[in-house]
């Protein structure tokens, strides 16, 4: 079974697995509360999968603020 999008493709967008997982989990929680998805016709029916698809589509990204 192949997972889409692949972890390799996602790490080209966000190079830290920890940040990627945290971002997807937060976005999944937000989607479960609002039922708003940033992409049309997601392949996944689970919120985490949809969040990862949003990362792949450049709709969801990490804002690197000041330290």
From TrEMBL:
Highest taxon of the lineage: Bacteria
Catalytic activity: RNA(n) + a ribonucleoside 5'-triphosphate = RNA(n+1) + diphosphate
Keyword set includes Phosphoprotein: no
Entry GO CC: DNA-directed RNA polymerase complex
Key words, A-Z: DNA-directed RNA polymerase, Nucleotidyltransferase, Transcription, Transferase
Tagged with keyword Nucleotidyltransferase: yes
Enzyme Commission number(s) from the entry: 2.7.7.6
Gene3D superfamilies (alphabetical): 3.90.940.10
SMART domains from the UniProt entry: RNA_pol_Rpb6
Pfam families: RNA_pol_Rpb6
Listed GO MF terms: DNA-directed RNA polymerase activity
UniProt xrefs under NCBIfam families: rpoZ
Function, as annotated: Promotes RNA polymerase assembly. Latches the N- and C-terminal regions of the beta' subunit thereby facilitating its interaction with the beta and alpha subunits.
Subunit structure: The RNAP catalytic core consists of 2 alpha, 1 beta, 1 beta' and 1 omega subunit. When a sigma factor is associated with the core the holoenzyme is formed, which can initiate transcription.
Family the entry assigns: Belongs to the RNA polymerase subunit omega family.
Protein name, as recorded: DNA-directed RNA polymerase subunit omega
Organism phylogeny: Bacteria, Bacillati, Bacillota, Bacilli, Bacillales
């Amino acid at each position: 079974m192949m997972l889409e999008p692949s972890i390799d493709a996602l790490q080209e967008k966000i190079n830290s697995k920890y940040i990627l997982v945290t971002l997807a989990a937060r976005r999944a929680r937000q989607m479960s509360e609002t039922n708003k998805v940033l992409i049309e016709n997601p392949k996944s029916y689970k919120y985490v999968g949809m969040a990862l698809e949003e990362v792949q589509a450049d709709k969801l990204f990490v804002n690197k603020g000041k330290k």
